[in-house]
């Protein structure tokens, strides 16, 4: 059985807290103006619909990725 929306939101908030860096693999259609694959950004927040709001490095805004639908990965901090 799948997770409830509340469980998905809680998991997304644990995995992608504000400040987390991500890289987009792909947005699932029908996003009319998707962010380009490979674009990186910084998580702003996760809302109650499991939308992960991102400040994209290319300046795009107002476009979220959907946890469990769109494909994106956390970028681990490089250790020096």
List keywords for this structure.
single chain, alpha+beta, five-stranded antiparallel β-sheet, 1 helix, globular
Describe the secondary-structure layout:
Blueprint: H1 5-15, E1 21-26, E2 40-46, E3 51-56, E4 64-66, E5 71-74
Antiparallel strand pairs: 1-2, 1-5, 2-3, 3-4
What does this molecule look like?
14% of the residues lie in helices and 32% in strands. It has a five-stranded antiparallel sheet with strand order 4-3-2-1-5. The chain is built from one helix and five strands; from the N terminus they run H-E-E-E-E-E. It starts with a helix and ends in a 6-residue tail after the last strand. With 80 residues, it is of the alpha+beta class. The protein has one helix at 5-15, and strands at residues 21-26, 40-46, 51-56, 64-66, 71-74. The protein has a single domain, classed as SH3 type barrels (Roll).
